[in-house]
Amino acid sequence: MLRRRKRGSGGKIRGMDSVDIEVLRSAEAWRKAGHRVTLGTIIRTWGSAPRPVGALVAIRDDGQVVGSVSGGCVEDDLIEKVKAKPADLPQLVTYGVTNEQATRWGLPCGGTLQLVLEPVTQQSGIEPLLATIGQQQLVRRRLDMATGEVTQQHGSWQDALEFDGKVLSTVHGPRWRLVLVGAGQLTQYLAEMAHMLDYHVTVVDPREEYAAGWDVAGVPLNRGMPDDVVREMNLDGHSAVVALTHDPKLDDLALMEALKSAAFYVGAIGSKKNNDARRARLLEFDLAQAQIDRLRGPVGLYIGSKTPPEIAVAILAEMTAVRHGVTDPSWAAKKASRFDPSACEVPGQAASASLKP
Questions:
Q1: Of the four, 40, 51, 146, 338, which is 20 to 30 A from 325 by CA?
Q2: E-assigned strands of 194-247?
Q3: How far is CA 258 from CA 161, 162, 203, 255, 325, in A?
Q4: pTM here?
Q5: How far is CA 60 from CA 74, 78, 123, 324, in A?
Q6: What tens-digit pLDDT sequence spans the chain (357 residues)?
Q7: Domain 176-323 in CATH 3.40.50.720
Q8: In the chain, where are the structural domains located?
Q9: In sequence order, what E strands does the chain have?
Q10: Any idea what the Cα angle at residue 345 is, between residues 111 and 347, rounded to 5°?
């Protein structure tokens, strides 16, 4: 369901949209074409629900669908609901209350999910929403369940989905920040892939020879000194920094600031030998050993990667594992995952700590 944009001059990669943006864009296009469209949002899960809170699906009146809220488990029933009687106002739908229902809908391990189904109209504000998040800005969207009225305002990095039974508040746009030091070839692939995963990407490189060749849609180049940029961004727990220049004058100073911040992930390219030497240099920057121990270098999961796009995959895989608290991202560890259908004897956990009761 992702749409590849056209390449620009020189064959540069021009970008792919995240799944959420593609769902919203399709919903608005269908509405403008005269279709009745329903937007579904997961607002709560229990047990082993296969999709996270906030996941979106758009369903057209003729049954066409984009996005997913259950990995295919309940979409058929949603399509039938929409085709039979599209709702005029938002409504709450629950799947998998009992084990019997969970089995019927294909939800693993007795999982349960709740969705808000919302009719998409011009008043839904999808077009201005897309325009704002297209500028790499966060939007907090509030839906009144009783009236269907929608209001939108600028969001913050700390915002999360909330639902109190009367108002659904969702956050749209890049919810995670990634700072990439260096504008080389690897950075282009990493920025593209991170953009698909809803990261707000900032590339920093003061070197003239790299500035002329930078051309990634939606990812501007900051020409400031990396340590100044990292410090001024006031990084929080939704932020990551990866140093990619191989130049200690640029990488080390940026890492010094990043390791002192609350960033959830700080990594650096280079061999083990080079990163060991880097750690020794960082000790001279008045950093505590515990701060230096946070550095992930060589950066990325070991998957035998050789090419720039393969290395980008390895880096984003490790970042994703850290985000989700996975300490052993191996297939053996997957046996204990609540998302593994072969592990149905493992009790699920609540997946929506940010929701208000």
A1: 40
A2: 199-204, 221-222, 239-243
A3: 28, 30, 14, 5, 20
A4: 0.64
A5: 16, 11, 17, 33
A6: 333 333 333 333 333 456 788 899 999 999 999 999 999 999 988 765 567 788 899 999 999 999 887 766 688 888 888 888 777 899 999 887 555 655 565 555 456 789 999 999 999 999 999 998 877 688 999 999 999 999 999 887 678 899 999 999 999 877 789 999 999 999 999 999 998 888 889 999 999 999 888 988 888 899 999 999 999 998 988 899 999 999 999 999 999 999 999 999 999 999 999 999 999 999 988 899 999 999 999 999 999 999 999 999 999 999 999 988 887 766 544 444 443 333 322 223 333 323 333
A7: yes
A8: 18-172, 176-323
A9: 37-46, 56-60, 65-67, 91-95, 112-120, 139-144, 150-154, 162-163, 167-172, 176-181, 199-204, 221-222, 239-243, 265-268, 295-296
A10: 50
Bond preceding residue 174 cis, omega within 30 of 0: no
Question: Position 317: which residue type?
Answer: A
First to last CA, the chain: 33
| Tokens describing residue 251 | 């990488």
